[in-house]
Amino acid sequence: MHGQLSQDTVVAAAASAVWDVYRGLELGRLVNQLLPDVLGKVEVIEGDGSVGTPGTGYMKEIFTKIDEEKRVKEAETIEGGFKALGFNVYRARFEIIEKDSATSVIRSTIEYEVDDELANLASHVTTKQVEILAEAIGKHLCEKKATG
Fold it and tell me: Other CB atoms closer than 10 Å to residue 64's CB: what's the count?
């Protein structure tokens, strides 16, 4: 069984500023600063935030795609989390879309694959955490711009 969920979050920040956060390791640092009780602690175990950089927490993931031109980043869970539940693939994709010079959309997409006999597990997949993350990053960037 294959599935996909997507959530668009509009933020009052330029797409370039949002991408600067999402493209590398800054996102993990901000999760630790802004949302440690909600999303857990992010720890980079090796790498510089480019493709192939693994991260860990309640799960391990690896960045599988970073497209600077399209502002797209993908991370796939390789251990723990939904993989531990029996999912074959669990991938998060973040796309930063420019609306205008001061507004952008963070499109967060979760893609997954699970064997048909475990299809009931698909009901556990949600975009709530990536939505909370996008909202927190948007708020952080607005506050940073205001105090700028």
Answer: 14
